[in-house]
Amino acid sequence: MSIRLKKLELSGFKSFAKLARFDFARPITAIVGPNGSGKSNVAESIRWVLGEQSLKSIRGKRGEDLIFNGSASASRMSKASVALYFDNSSHQFPVEFDEVIISRRVYRDGKNEYLLNDSEVRLKDIIELLSNVGLGVSQHHIIGQGEADRVLYSSPKERQQAIEDALGLKIYQFKRQEAERKLYRTEENMRQAQALQKEIGPHLKHLERLVEKFKQVSETKIRLEKMLNDYLARSKAWLNAVSSDLYSKKKKPIEELARAEKKIKDLKDNLAGLKKIENEPKEVRESDSELADLRGHRTKIERDLGRLEGMLEAAEFADSSAEGEMISKEEVEALLSDIDNSLTSAMDTDVLEEVQGIIQEVISRISSFFSGPVLPENAKISKKDLFDKKKNLEEELARITEREKALVKKREELNLSFYESLQSQRLSENELFGLESEANDLRNTLRNFDIEQEKIKMREEEFSRELEEAKRHLGEDKINPGEAEAYSEPEREKAKKEIDRLKFRLEEAGGVDPAIVKEYEEIKARDEFFSRELDDLIKSAKSLREVSKELAEKIEHDFSGGVEKINKEFQRFFETMFGGGKAKLAIIRPEKQSKTEDEDLPEEMSSPEILKNEGGIDIDVSLPRKKIKGLDMLSGGERALTSIALLFAMSAVNPPPFLVLDETDAALDESNSRRYAEMLKSLSQTTQIITITHNRETMKQAGVLYGVTMGSDGISRMLSLKLSEAEEIAQ
């Protein structure tokens, strides 16, 4: 025996108000006591702690019916608890504890608690744990009072469950059911995933089109961003280049214009000084005035001198009239000399009046010379007086001539200085004209440069507008023109056309909300998740089907083999009980049929298959010396013996940790009681037996006897009894 039940503790359960402890140190433990003492509550407590859910089977209607309800002398309890202690040193229970304690508590509010070694667990955990040692939910190992023939009255399906429990197949049934539940949930999840995938499919396609459009727009934006940055960078470089070039070109004309304007200013200042000299030729005017006076006086003297000479000639002519009217050579030469001097003097003056006076004087001299001297008739002037007067006039004329020469020389010197000033002024004026012409040319050049500067300024303003427009169009963080090579004008025009084309494409495409991309990613992720889930679920479903199939095959194989073994033991125990006869378990296979035979309906509309029967286990018995082949024809004692034989057979094939028998021997006569006791003794070699009995033969086989009694307070108590006292009580 690999696992052993060590003890049972009850507290507040039904009539056991106080803590009661049953130690199971021997293979067979018998619990005895008078009717109504509460000994059957021990069997029910074991059934309850192992997970019984039917309160009817433990004689209750509500959870609080299991709690001690008090009596006239004892107060009621608030909870009931039962604990089973197992020796798990062999670790047949798949836990790490050497002692396994399974407990159950119920409170008056109906709350139930299941504990494993004082840790709260689920009922499912308890059932799966017990299934590992053949203690299934059918609880075939606990036969309550009046239930000796329970297995015979069970349905074939219930018998099958009891046998599966006895064979230890319930754990595989649980695993198979769990696999099928998981498969069902998996298939349901697959349907849901497919439905959700189908639901989001059209929306996903719509989003794909929008996202594709968004990608095209994004690619266009990226290209536009690149081109705009390149365009702005190269435009900026071009502006910098032309501005720098224009500055370089303007620098020299500006400097030259500054120099020319300085020279012009200097020349104008110089010319202003020259004009002052021209406007104030005082010495020249004074010299010219004095010279004019001298020349006028000289002319008068010369006229007077000419008259005197004429008078002298006339006097001499009068004296020599006999000699004829001849004019000497000397006189002609003197006349010509005088004319020459007068004309030379006229050429040396700029005064028109003086020139006219000199010319008139010359004309008069010539006329006077050729007309001959005419003396007055009564002239009484002597030659001496004439010579003296002539001498005086000649001396005065000499003085005037000297003075005139001095004035002429002085005037020539003044004229030379003045003409030099005039010439310097003319040269300065010519230079000023040239400089002003050059300055005008420079100004025209600078005006052309200013026009170019204005064009550059317009281009700079255009660049600023393009920069702001680009920032508005793409976002300020996207526009960052760096260093680049300057554009040529054809390249700039070509790039600008391409940028305008990309802008037009963006405007034509329209805006796509970036949230669409996020939504698409989320929907796509969901779709991919559903696809992965479907793949995983398909694989999981396939694996679960394989597991379910393997478990079904194992259960079927082990069940068929176990039934054969049980049949051998059943036949042996049956022969022992009845002194012969035959007993056999027969497996009933489930049969299926369809509600409709219409094969033309589509598969999804066809009716599901139903079971003609659920299958199970049937019992065939044949009593010796009787022609009885049905369970319904057996008497009460025969049914009890048959049920006990089957129960012992199941326990012999796969011994459970313990059997609880509540007065299963009550209907047996003395001879059958002995047979029953012998079978208990034989079965106790592999299974602990806890029996509640009044049968003396049964008590003889027990190693430990527990007596249960009840006092006036309605509380069940345990009594220690010696075997001799137990035999007396039994008699």
UniProtKB/TrEMBL annotation:
Stretches that traverse the bilayer: none
Q: What is this protein called?
A: RecF/RecN/SMC N-terminal domain-containing protein
Entry coiled-coil feature ranges:
169-277, 383-410
Asked if Coiled coil is a keyword of the record, the answer is yes
Identify the domain of life. Bacteria
The RecF/RecN/SMC N-terminal domain covers 5-716
Q: What is the lineage of its organism?
A: Bacteria, Candidatus Niyogiibacteriota
Please provide the record's keywords in A-Z order.
Coiled coil
Keyword check for Coiled coil, yes or no: yes
Species for this entry? Candidatus Niyogibacteria bacterium RIFCSPLOWO2_01_FULL_45_48
Pfam families, from UniProt?
SMC_N
